[in-house]
Every structure is written in C-alpha cells, then in structure tokens.
Automatic annotation (TrEMBL):
Highest taxon in the source lineage: Eukaryota
InterPro entries registered for this protein in UniProt: Tetraspanin/Peripherin (IPR018499), Tetraspanin_animals (IPR000301), Tetraspanin_CS (IPR018503), Tetraspanin_EC2_sf (IPR008952)
Subcellular location: Basolateral cell membrane; Membrane
Organism: Alectura lathami (Australian brush turkey)
Entry protein name: Tetraspanin
Similarity comment: family membership: Belongs to the tetraspanin (TM4SF) family.
Membrane-spanning residues: 12-35, 56-84, 90-114, 201-225
A Pfam family of this chain: Tetraspanin
Keyword Transmembrane: yes
Gene3D superfamilies with a match to the protein in the record: Tetraspanin
C-alpha cells in the first residue's frame, strides 16, 4: 500500500531534492575536472625544479572532489529511485550514505579551513626557490624556465614590485616585455598566487555549503518518509 496525503507530498519533495543533489554532484564533478585541467594551475603545478616537483596538495583536493561528485551522483540516483519505489531498504541505505558523506564533508571542510593558506604558501616557496636559483646561477636554465612560466601564466614579475623595480638586470631576462613596460605597477607573484588559489577555494567553499544544506534536508525527509512507509505497511 502506497503512502497518502502529506507523506505522499514528502515523497515527491524528497525526489526533487534528490534530483537537485544528483545535479549538484554533476556540477561538483564538472567543476573539479575544470580545476584539474585549468591552464593556470596545470602550467604551475606541473613544473619541476631539478628533482623537486611543485606542491601537489591542490591536486589531492581536486581528486577528492572528483570522487565526491561521482559518489553524490550515485547517492542522488539511489535516493530518487528509493523515494519513487517507496523502498525502506533503499531509503535506509540512502540515509546511511548521506550520513557518511556529510561526516566526510565536515571533516574535509575543517581540514580545508585549517590548511587554507598552506597550498598558496607551498607554491610561493617553490617559486622563491626557483627565483633564487635563477638569480644565483646564471646557467640554471631549468630554474629560469620555471620562473618564466610563473611570470607568463600569472602575469606577474618577481616576488614583489620593489624587487622588480630595483633589479632591471634580471627582470629583462625573466619577465615578459608587456610586464617590463609597467614594471613599477606589475603585481607581485606572491600576490597573484594568493589570488589564484583563494579564488578557487572560495568557489569550492560555496559549493560545499550549498551541498551540506541540501544533505541536511534530505536526511530529515528520508527518515520521515521511511517511517511513514513502515507505518503504512502495517495497515
């Protein structure tokens, strides 16, 4: 016997929320793939300075996002099917998956908040090492190539504008012509690195908050629907 009245309305509301959740999973998967193949991040994070690889913390987070997006799409489909079929088993499994996902999202959010500045800090340290090596060793073509990639990708020149203005010898060798024309006004690479990663982390944070709110509503609705189905099957 199917559910009736208010519970039937909850059933379709839960279906709509699950469909939105499934779409959100697809959007997160798409955004994660975009961040993974974004030209700015790939140009910088694929760099190698001798035996030292650029920090890969950002990509680890991206791979986690890809996995989360795929799991969300699966769980969203499971919730939609369970709601339409009025299956206690599927709804119970759906609720369990949501609790696990929510716990993982909270843990990832705490980790991301604590380490929000670490990614940019690691990349800036990598840039500084390459920059110092390019200055100290004129034959270090690898270090110069790394520094030039940073400058061209981020449209910056040097660790800070003061250094850029006071070091015309290295600036003509490591900076692009367009930046040299406005050397005094060119943004520092440290600032550009902060802007690059803070902007992307801000986007991820907004998506995480929206998904968390949807998940809370879904957990409540799924439990209400599951209890209603159990009670209606008694009669």
């Amino acid at each position: 016997m199917g559910v009736e009245g208010c519970t039937k309305c909850i059933k379709y509301v839960l279906f709509v929320f699950n469909f939105i959740f499934w779409l959100a999973g697809g959007i997160i998967l798409g955004v994660a793939l975009w961040l993974r193949h974004d030209s700015q991040t790939t140009n910088i994070l694929y760099l190698q300075l001798g035996d030292k690889q650029a920090p890969n913390t950002f990509y680890i987070g991206i791979y986690i996002l890809i996995a989360v997006g795929a799991v969300m799409m699966f769980v969203g489909f499971l919730g939609c099917y369970g709601a339409i079929q009025e299956s206690q088993c599927l709804l119970g499994t759906f609720f369990t998956c949501l609790v696990i996902l929510f716990a993982c999202e909270v843990a990832a959010g705490i980790w991301g908040f604590v380490n929000r500045d670490q990614i940019a800090k690691d990349v800036k340290q990598f840039y500084d090492q390459a920059f110092q090596q390019a200055l100290m060793d004129s034959d270090s073509n690898n270090a110069k190539a790394v520094v030039k990639t940073f400058h061209e990708t981020l449209d910056c020149c040097g660790p800070d504008t003061i250094t850029g203005a006071m070091m015309p010898l290295w600036s003509h060798e490591l900076c692009t012509k367009s930046l040299l024309q406005n050397l005094g006004q060119s943004a520092s690479c440290h600032k550009k690195i902060d802007e690059l990663f803070s902007g992307k982390l801000y986007l991820i944070g907004i998506a995480a908050i929206v998904v968390a709110v949807i998940m809370i509503f879904e957990m409540i609705l799924s439990m209400v629907l599951c209890c209603s189905i159990r009670n209606s099957s008694v009669y």
